[in-house]
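Help wanted!
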Amino acid sequence: MVRVRYAGAPSGDLHLGNIRTALFNWMFARHEGGTFIWRVEDTDPERAKQELIDRAAETMRWVGIDWDEGPFRQSERGDYYASIVSRLLEDGWLYRCYCTRDEIKARGVSSGYDRFCRTRTDQPDAPFALRFKAPDRDVVVHDRLAGEVRTPASEVQDFVAVRSDGSVVFALANTADDIAMEITHVLRGADILNAATSNVLLFEALGAAPPEFVHVPLILGPDRSRLGARHGAVGTLAYRDGGYLPEALTNYLSLLGWAPGTGEEIMSLERRVELFSLDGLQTSNAVFDIKKLEWMNEEYIKTLPVDELRDRIVALDPSIPRDVLQQALDMELLQTRIKTLAEVRDAMRYLYERPPASEVAEEARATLSMLASKLETSDWSVEAIRDAVQSTVEELGLHRRRGPKPIFVAIAGSEKALPLYESIYIIGRDEALARLRAAMSVA
RNA sequence: GCCCCCGUAGUGCAGCGGCCUAGCACGCUGGCCUUUCACGCCGGUAGCACGGGUUCGAAUCCCGUCGGGGGUACCA
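Answered by r_m:
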């Protein structure tokens, strides 16, 4: 029975890397019919805030991840850790260390610990941490992706397991919880591959078999450093606010470090669960490419039912008039023209708000003028409007393609806009005439 | 510095010793379609990091170099 967890510090908004890790765990659990557990590593009191957890939960729900157990908070599991610590103490795995980092450095130790306190017999009246008595041999971590990762004996450290304030350190809480929760597979970022050595030592000391480790490669920014704040929008919710569909975002994220092996790229959550396998996991880091995400979002938008699309646009931006939006959507003006939901507003704004009149070329006046007079008496249908525009262009001997440009400018405020006939139809006869006249009078 | 991981076009993937004149997708780009902009369709672009082996044969296996990333905390 597969039991996996997403364990992270609630550092506010879960960033893309966190979500991808959660996603991999979740997809794996769902594929295997296993259990997905959410654990919050908030031993640091600064991080033990309910609002942070709420926000993390909001993020998880938005992307479609649900959890079978949890969220378990490490900040509430102190008693359990204390029992683990006393066990370790009884079995002789821990020893008191009174050294401060400065003292260690003063001894000429640049990194790691020289085991100074390991053999000391006195017990000074000073604060102490508890260090783990690491064995004097190579330690091997069996990782699904990296293989047998061997840490040479000289690099194996007597790491601090309990801080001088009595709180337990990440490796300890992490391992203790994985044992208690009977975790079978640990999928996490490769940034803590090295830390797995401490985990393995602790599993052994506690007489538990280590889970299968799967350290997934990291997501990098365009500059190839680990994706982080310096790369701009990295919080997952920022993508919701930016008009990305969660299914597109998670689809894209899933492909960063994993491939189904079928060549498929656009896959629903269900399909991804169906295809997910540890075998498809990648061993090298992946660069986050916003362009491909945009493309994928576009693809998802294109296949969304109109009503669904409308609801999502309104949910994101309630200020957009629903009736106008509905018309634009029904006339298929928007769906193939936006990469994100957030673009809708600017794309269709001129349909319900008169754009500032911009200057039109002198020669264009005749065009606008003739069209205006045709529109005054024309039937009010897209077909009739098309006839009016086309006949104007023909009668004035204008270029078939370039001829209507001034009309776009007059109506939409730009040469690039949604389809003209429908736009004119939607804004209505009075408004259309007013805009044409306004454009003529600017010059 | 030391330790660990990784290395196929700009990016993400496929390739698992001969089927590779290295495939797909994004990007970029030419064209068609078209009332603008898009969509769609057709085409182009660019790569096995380098050097040694092993082998009849290597993108695929081995070694080295170089390059990238991560770690080196009483952070996770």
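OP: Thanks! One thing I noticed: DSSP finds 18 helices and twelve strands in chain A.
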